[in-house]
Amino acid sequence: MSANASANAHTASNTITIERLNKSYADLKPGSIHYIIKDIDLVIKGGEFFVLLGPSGCGKSTLLNIIAGFVSKSGGNLRVGDEEISKPGRERAVVFQQADSSLFPWLTVRQNVEFGLKMKKMPKEQRRAISDKFIRLVGLFGHENKFPRELSGGMKQRVQLARVLANDPSILLMDEPFGALDAMTRRTMQKELSHIWQETNKTVIFVTHDIQEALLLGGRIAVMSHGPNAHISDIYDVPMGYPRDASLPEFQALHRTIQSHFDAELEGTMYP
Amino acid sequence: MKPTSILHRKWFTVPLLWVFAIVAWQIGAWIYGPEIIPGPVATWKGAQELLEDGSLVKYIGVSFYRVFLGWALGSLLAIPIGLIIGRVTAIRVFAEPFLNFIRFIPPIAFITLFLVWFGIGEQSKIALIMYATLFIVMMNTLTGVLSVEEDKIRSARSMGASEWQILVHVVIPATTPYIFTGIRLAMGTSYMAIIGAEMIAANEGVGFLIWNSRLFFRTDWIFVGLISLGLMGFLTDRLVGWIGRKTLYRYGVISSAPVRR
Fold first, then answer.
1. Which residues of B touch A98 (CB under 8 A)?
2. What is the mean pLDDT of residues B6-13?
3. I need a labelling partner for B3 at 20 to 30 A (CA). Which of A28, A199, B21, B147 fits?
4. Are A225 and A231 a contacting pair, CB within 8 Å?
5. CATH for the B45-251 domain, from 1.10.3470.10, 2.60.210.10, 3.40.718.10, 1.10.3720.10
6. How far is A117 from chain B (nearest CA, A)?
7. B164 touches chain A (CB under 8 A)
8. What global pTM score does this model have?
């Protein structure tokens, strides 16, 4: 299958190229244009774990929704491989922040995971083999026949993860997927996500406002400035292996650097 | 189970309530006389008369048939229309103001017109029930479609679902509880509409019984008609609710009884 090939071969075909990307809307005053995000330039390599870090409301979700194809861009280029992107596609899977609003509550865990395969009209036995594999991968073995309402918040996010992985996308777009979880569950999910990422070699774009989370997960961290006119103000490389230890001095040093970046920016906007 | 007072037990409170109601009814009958308020015994005798010549069973059957047919046809028509109006913005823009205007016209106000349009026979009654059902089910379906979370549609789309698949596999299941509430509410208004229609233009049916009894000053038969109506409505509502719970549980249809307008 072509989707399979593109996911496993992390070549230039699933590199995401963003050039001078804008999202704007006409302001109330005629003639003036209001930019949510302005002139974003990014190249995200195939197989990379890329984190978009920024304060709430800075436009990082808007950027993710444009990449997902849910929201149209106002200007600039967006390509996956050589292909210009304007619509949602199977190769870009989305994990939403709220599992309750994105899972299908009338379907069991297994039926949720098999949803995309069923839409492709894949035969039942094949679907079952694939859903079994990913339900096991996310640690939900034994919960296949439960409904989402019978699961905890962390388990629901595992269903979301298995559901998108079953479609074998080459890119995972994750919008603060652990933001609504308690601290302990969040930590477990972070560990498992980096484990799954290492195992499946997907390109991940992960949106968060949590510096620690960004540092635990990301290979590169793009720091977004506060909107309007939000742009990428800096990109940090995280030269540490997995699993990461938040108590190491190099981890804490990088944490401080990024924190002071935000502090400086905040000072600029709040006390002019 | 923790011990509760006898007043919290349904098997005790429900019969108790009925005993109170019947006693109050009997007292009323003694005070005002059987012409104004026929007591339980007089009503039971009236019911026996109507049961013996078979007219009560026939009337209930006729009214129920009209309600069921009009309600089922109306719902079958209303659900797809509601889905289309909900999904297609261009249609909704034009349909919504019209819907919000027409839904305030009660079915009974249409009786004379429907008689002129569809004749004195069954057609006009069925059409009236369809009208009574149509807008309630349509508005509920529409509301359901509009409240489907955007994330569900987006996630289906990014997993490769076509627009048709999104309608069938996401929008309809997500809207099912709303549709169900709509058809359950419509059952109630259907009874109101049919009684009105039968009072004005019918030779049989529970509405006819209630209206016709005035000619003979048989208030006991009127009481029989009223009680029959209450029982018919109660039983069909319970039946519809039970079927919904049994078959539509996974869609989030739960046991709460809908509130009538």
1. 151
2. 79
3. B21
4. yes
5. 1.10.3720.10
6. 8
7. no
8. 0.84
